[in-house]
Amino acid sequence: MNVLWVFAHPEPRSLSGALRDDGLRTLRELGHAVRESDLYAMKWNPVVDAADFGAEAGDERLVVGATSARAHARGELSPDIVAEQEKLDWADAVVVQFPLWWYGLPAILKGWFDRVFVKGFGYGVRAEDGRTLRYGEGRLAGKRAMVVLTAGAREPAMGPRGVNGALDEVLFPLHHGTLFYAGMSVLEPVPVFGADRVSAEHFADARQLLRERLRTLETAEPIPFRPQNGGDYDDDLVLRPDRAPGATGLAIHLTGKP
């Protein structure tokens, strides 16, 4: 497999950095080809502005979706965006690694998605019959994605009744609203809890877990999100009454959930 590792941590000597190094080494030992986007080392610019879109932006009011789509189609996106899109085109799988900050991604990683997943590439893709291809379909369909994250909270506090909220729900915007939205098959995440007080034993366990998950990167079953165009949703994109009848909440967007 071709694997792109997107890394968003400001300190390479951190726990995250050590896991990243071991993960890349493991992938190579398994025979995979690896590329990396180390966003802090690259000094990645996370801010969307008119300079992203070349001559297409012009002097008129910037409408990011429409302008980015035209720039993408005409090959006028800025070189740093194009370089990341080429990595994604090359990749069969993407590992996205970050520390969980304020229930979300570090700004530099959020900005990577904002700038790279432009309309016509990450979203806004249509089939020949006019259907919008998203939530399980799209330009990035067929690629796998797996999140590796560190969190300061202990594991019980990010469980079903934990004060921080269940991890699968905290990650829903990234898993479902970004990666799956763009068509990717999303694997269960690799979390490391209590990251600011990890013992040597805890680190060894985390490293072993990551290695095991990388060994099954090609074969693991993805999270069973319902595809938009699979018949589960009506014309208003609302789950049909006979699917998860009477239930609400994020879990209803998984197949087989009551």
UniProtKB/TrEMBL annotation:
Looking up InterPro entries in the UniProt record yields:
Flavodoxin_fold, Flavoprotein-like_sf, NAD(P)H_dehydrogenase_qn
Q: What class of enzyme is it?
A: oxidoreductase
From the Swiss-Prot or TrEMBL record, give the protein name: NAD(P)H-dependent oxidoreductase
Q: Has the keyword Oxidoreductase been applied to this entry?
A: yes
All copies of domain Flavodoxin-like fold, residue ranges: 1-213
CC terms in the record's Gene Ontology section: cytosol
Q: Which Gene3D superfamilies match?
A: 3.40.50.360
What PANTHER family does the record point to? Answer: NAD P H OXIDOREDUCTASE-RELATED, NAD(P)H DEHYDROGENASE [QUINONE] 1 ISOFORM 1
Q: Which organism is the protein's source?
A: Amycolatopsis mongoliensis
Q: Which GO terms describe its molecular function?
A: NAD(P)H dehydrogenase (quinone) activity
What's the EC number here? 1.-.-.-
Pfam families, sorted: Flavodoxin_2 (PF02525)
Alphabetically list the UniProt keywords. Oxidoreductase
Family membership: Belongs to the NAD(P)H dehydrogenase (quinone) family.
Asked if Transferase is a keyword of the record, the answer is no
